[in-house]
Amino acid sequence: MLLVFVLATGIAAVWLRNLLASAMLLGIYSLLMAALWVVLDAVDVAFTEAAVGAGLTTALMLFAIWLTGRQEKPPVRKPWFPLAGALITGGLLIFGTIDMPKFGDPQAPAQVHVAPYYLENAEAQTGVPNVVTSVLASYRGFDTLGEVTVVFTAGMGVVVLLGGLRRRRRTDET
Amino acid sequence: MKDYFVLRVMAKLLIPFILLFGFYVQMHGDYGPGGGFQAGVIIAAALILYAIVFDVGPARRVAPMWMLVALSCIGVLLYASVGVATMMAGGQFLEYGVLAHDPAHGNHLGILIIEIGVGVAVAAAMLMIYFSFAGRR
Known about the structure:
The structure holds 2 protein chains of 2 kinds.
Chain A: H1 2-15, H2 19-39, H3 43-67, H4 80-97, H5 109-112, H6 115-126, H7 131-139, H8 141-162, H9 164-173
Helix pairs in contact in A: 1-2, 2-3, 6-7, 7-8
Chain B: H1 5-27, H2 36-53, H3 56-62, H4 65-88, H5 103-134
Helix pairs in contact in B: 1-2, 2-3, 2-5, 4-5
């Protein structure tokens, strides 16, 4: 049921020419995805999706629309080629999922590699009851440092591109 | 949007609680869902809500751009310096166990500190992006 709603909002967001409505639909899409993550017992991911996807990204997109314009330009020609590309890629991805182990299969490679080790030892080794946090911050600490650097670089990139610092200085001088 | 009475009152009412929730998520990330990334975004969202409902000007005075740039640098450097500190203490990079006598305590401490670094860096970066957008007009 949730998946149907996710699909419907996703398609509608692409279909609509009104970008304001599209941005709002993408916000709803993210909220539905967050609900889906909760159903799949991934509360940390759901939290992130709700905060970043439904909250902040929507606000940023609304601001981008406010700066540019509300209506999408009509396309110059029919997008048959991109549509075929998307369909073929999607079909291949779905074909790839056929070989995947069933959801929650105890013999799946993801469940037998390091996951049991983390689940058994994380609390004793790190003193942190939330396994997700201990994996994210301790076992995979170096990855997370990289992620923070990515966020930092993104912020710096936007500031440099949109000239937040220089503009302020110039207005101070004049 | 300052002319809308309902929006103004509701935003004023909600913002302290959003900020408080952000700090709760930050410090409670090791017991429940959440952590630095989520907390940073929530704290940034509180300020962005303020800037949308009231005005960008006062929000910018609370968090001027140079401060945000400095804060995001401090966040990343705090994370990395924990790694350097563990190396100084005789461990490997980001091996928190050496920070305290008991490896589990050291790990807990290290995770708390790097989560604060993550939260500060993410909140500052999000606000930087928002303010550069909002300052275009």
